[in-house]
Write a structure and sequence with these properties.
The complex is a heterodimer of chains A (701) and B (125). Chain A is an alpha+beta fold. Chain A has 20 helices and 21 strands. The radius of gyration of chain A is 35 Å and the shape is elongated. Chain B is α+β, with helices and mostly antiparallel strands. In chain B, 23% of the residues lie in helices and 38% in strands. Chain B is built from 2 helices and 6 strands, in the order H-E-H-E-E-E-E-E. Chain B is elongated. Chain B starts with a helix and ends in an 11-residue tail after the last strand. The chains are: A alpha+beta (701), B alpha+beta (125). Chains A and B meet through helix 9, helix 14, strand 1, helix 16 and strand 2 of A and helix 1, strand 1, strand 2 and strand 6 of B.
């Protein structure tokens, strides 16, 4: 039922979008029709909201008649993760994207002024395509026969608070990237090369900040929770999300300069188009299966793979078309002689960003083009590290130098003074830009000067101190707190500093099965983090067993121990319990200078032989963990017996009864705090600048 | 004047990164090969294989993670990975390893586990 309703709602939305599009076209051609256009867009938006609400309802009520709900959630999933299962799968994530698209679209309509109708003529088709995707790969697909069981559950790796924030913020950025795109296309279409940037600036800033926040969250999530010790792996899918961010950086800087000096109008158009096209391209690369073999992030091939490829081309088409059609205008529009120190710095900056984008793109596409050229290969992370490091340095240099340059030239002292003046004038809102740049500088500093992170993998025996660099570690044991995540207690001592490290190693249900999950413990420090990842926990071993044969009157030795089989001792067990016969063996056990005589036996019960072990008690053996000797078999014809000795090794080691052990990887991660703080400042600065730009725009216009 | 500066800067940057790129291009590219091919060469390659269940663990001395993979041709080889066993390892239908074959085992610098039909987040560079 819900399945049918959901699909119908989406179909209705699609049709309403198309009607809105028609009215906007009429508005563009004839100057009227905006009212109905807005109305139908609003109605379409309500359909999308309705579809989202339906999916929420299905998830929260565990309606397994919907396949998506069954595949991505389970009855026992905590509420927080239940919420996030909405976007855990492909179809749901597209619905989230569409939802943001219409929500932002409402604001876009209200704030776009004269650009509204033409921009919407580009914006609505984007929403239509997303809706189409949702009809092909529907979140409302029914499950066929109603599945029993608790549901497949959310993949345990995704059962983390970050799953609630990271994807929505990421998709917010994706949705917002469409706005500068549409405005740029509308502007060029109208032959208005300067006007569109005023509207575009807050959206560009917003998209950049959201993308940045999404990427930063992804990195932090990986670092804090996933346990492989890093925050950025140059994984093709991570790289794909970096591409629109890089072009977005170029765009927002370019727009500022164009506002001031009216230059870069052509390149800003290109950046605006590319930022969005790269969003679609990155979606395609992630979800098409093209990179499935070289990235653990990506989906395999789905029904949307080919449509997404065409979507990318489709997004690129109007940009290329307009660029070609307006090429002469662009040449005329850029004042040729605008030439001052600062523009050169920006020129270099944009060039570096473009090179950065190309290098990352070429790395991502290696599996794709190499397959065509018959030497199917992948690109290792070393490529990015080698190529990007000099870029980071260059950007760092520019970051420092640029505020010192001015548009006109002049002394450095002048420049610094002017810079400080500007900050004072603009107040807290104006702090957005400087804050973001400070954050960028911190990020670059952390990455470039962080250096290597030394690491070791060690086995920690319970209660036995281990050492790593200047740290002492004592694994005290495992315990299970109320949330079920079994945790290890490790006492860490670093000089005078003592603290408890609590990495987690537990079983979790998800994806239809139990999986083992590990969470690292991170001790944050100003200059470096200490990172402890649990690898494996071993319960105390019951003790070693040594099995061997003893022939009568012969001895067998091991280390300081020797065992001699003296003779058989037959007896009547009925003395003890009134039961059957007793087959015993007298064995002399020697350890060094000590010796003792034992008589392990096999008791004949009605239908079985029950072994009666004999404890090996010698001076110095730990009575709590005494070794035992047991007769396993008797070879009467050969006059031999097969015995097993349990716990001999541990008895030989006077210190240690069998103890649990925990294997961990411990490493030192330099500059992490600086890095996260820098990312935070960048994102905060971006949002602050967005707010400032928006309020300026709204108060003026 | 400044137009020339722009050309100089652009030229220098493009030249620098092109040279760097050419120098690094080959050595950061890892061809996909089968296990049989991997055993026959000593350069860095990438191999996909299915880990054999139960045959994996940490070497108590070196603390490296050892496991055995088998590819489509039913060849198998031991892999030694100086790193952490990924959480999704046991359930992974396939893993991808990047590294080189030495003497009798494949020493991997990179280990990726895959769960192709889901939107995952798990990377082990």
């Amino acid at each position: 039922m819900i399945s049918v309703v959901g699909k119908t709602v989406l179909w209705t939305g699609l049709i309403l979008f198309l009607i809105s599009f028609i009215f906007y076209y009429i508005q563009y051609k004839k100057g009227s029709g905006r009212g109905p256009a807005r109305l139908f867009f609003l109605l379409a938006g309500l359909c999308v909201a309705g579809a989202s609400a339906l999916l929420w309802k299905a998830i929260l009520t565990h309606d397994f008649s919907i396949a998506y709900v069954y595949e991505y959630s389970s009855k026992d999933l905590p509420a927080l993760y239940l919420l996030s299962s909405f976007w855990a799968g492909q179809a749901g994530s597209f619905l989230l994207w569409l939802f943001w698209g219409v929500l932002l679209g409402f604001f876009f309509i209200r704030w776009s002024g004269e650009y509204e109708s033409q921009s919407m003529l580009f914006y609505i088709p984007i929403q239509c395509l997303l809706t189409l995707f949702l009809l092909v790969e529907s979140p409302f697909q029914s499950s066929g026969s109603c599945p029993t069981g608790p549901g497949m559950g959310l993949n345990p790796l995704l059962q983390d608070p970050w799953m609630v924030f990271h994807p929505p913020v990421m998709f917010l950025g994706y949705a917002a990237a469409a706005m500068p795109f549409c405005l740029a296309l509308a502007g060029f279409w109208r032959r208005d090369y300067q006007g569109w940037i005023g509207e575009a600036r807050p959206w560009a800033l917003f998209a950049w900040s959201s993308l940045g926040a999404g990427i930063a969250m992804g990195g932090y999530w990986a670092y804090k929770v996933l346990g492989w010790g890093g925050w950025w792996g140059w994984d093709p899918v991570e790289n794909a999300s970096l591409l629109p961010f890089l072009m977005g950086t170029a765009l927002l800087h370019g727009l500022i300069i164009q506002k001031k000096k009216q230059i870069f109008s052509g390149t800003n158009f290109i950046y605006a188009v590319l930022t969005f096209v790269l969003v679609i391209l990155s979606t395609y690369l992630t979800r098409s299966g093209v990179l499935a073999e070289s990235s653990v992030h990506s989906f395999g091939k789905t029904r949307l793979s080919t449509p997404l490829f065409y979507f990318t081309l489709l997004a690129l088409a109007p940009g290329l078309g307009l660029l070609f059609l307006r090429r002469r205008d662009i040449k005329k529009a850029s004042p040729p002689k605008e030439q001052v120190n600062k523009s050169v710095v920006f020129f270099s900056f944009f060039l570096v960003l473009i090179l950065f984008t190309l290098i990352v793109l070429s790395g991502i596409l290696t599996p794709v083009y190499s397959r065509w050229l018959h030497f199917y290969s992948t690109r290792g992370p070393e490529w990015y590290n080698i190529m990007v490091r000099p870029m980071g340095i260059l950007i760092g240099v520019m970051l420092v130098l640029c505020p010192l340059f001015s548009w006109e030239g002049g002394t450095i002292k002048n420049a610094v003074f002017n810079f400080l003046q500007r900050i004072r004038k603009k107040g807290i809102q104006g702090a957005g830009g400087p804050l973001a740049h400070l954050g960028a500088a911190m990020l670059l500093g952390a990455v470039l000067f962080g250096g290597l992170s030394p690491k070791s993998r060690v086995t920690l025996i319970q209660n036995e101190p281990g050492r790593w660099r200047n740290q002492t570690l004592v694994f005290e044991g495992m315990f299970t707190p109320s949330d079920g995540k079994t945790t290890a207690r490790i006492k860490m001592t670093e000089g005078n500093n003592v603290y408890l490290a609590l990495p987690k190693l537990y079983e979790s249900y998800g994806n239809g099965r139990m999986q083992i999950r590990a969470e690292p413990y991170i001790k944050k420090g100003i200059f470096a983090d200490v990172y402890i990842a649990p690898l494996e926990y071993e319960e105390p071993q019951p003790g070693d067993s040594w099995i061997f044969e003893l022939e009568k009157t012969k001895s067998v030795s091991r280390g300081e121990w020797s065992f001699t089989f003296d003779r058989f001792v037959m007896g009547d067990h009925s003395q003890m319990t009134g039961q059957g016969s007793r087959f015993g063996a007298q064995i002399t056990v020697k350890h060094g200078l000590d010796s003792t005589i034992l008589e392990p036996a096999l008791i004949m019960e009605p239908d079985t032989l029950v072994p009666e072990p004999a404890p090996i008690l010698l001076p110095g053996t730990d009575t709590l963990h005494t070794p035992h000797i047991v007769i396993q078999r008797i070879f009467a014809d050969r006059k031999a017996i097969q015995v097993a000795v349990h716990g001999l090794e541990t008895a030989m080691d006077e210190k240690a009864p069998p103890r649990a052990s925990l294997k961990v990887e411990i490493s030192r991660k330099p500059m992490m705090t600086l890095l996260w703080f820098g990312l935070l400042l960048m994102v905060l600065g971006g949002f602050l600048a967005t707010y400032r730009r928006l309020s300026r725009n709204l108060s003026i216009g | 004047m400044t137009a020339k500066i722009k050309y100089i800067i652009a030229g220098a940057l493009i030249l620098f990164f092109s040279i760097l790129g050419f120098m690094s291009f080959k050595k950061t590219m890892y061809p996909y090969v089968s296990i049989r091919e991997a055993k026959n060469q000593s350069q860095m390659v990438q191999v996909i294989g299915k880990p054999i269940p139960g045959r994996n663990g940490y070497n108590n001395t070196t603390m490296n993670f050892h496991f055995i993979i088998q590819d489509r041709n039913h060849d198998s080889m031991e892999v030694v990975y100086e790193g952490v066993k990924p959480g999704t390892f046991d359930e992974a239908p396939d893993v991808v390893v990047i590294g080189q074959y030495k003497i009798n085992a494949f020493y991997a610098t990179s280990l990726l586990t895959k769960c192709p039909s889901r939107y995952e987040k798990k990377v082990n560079p």
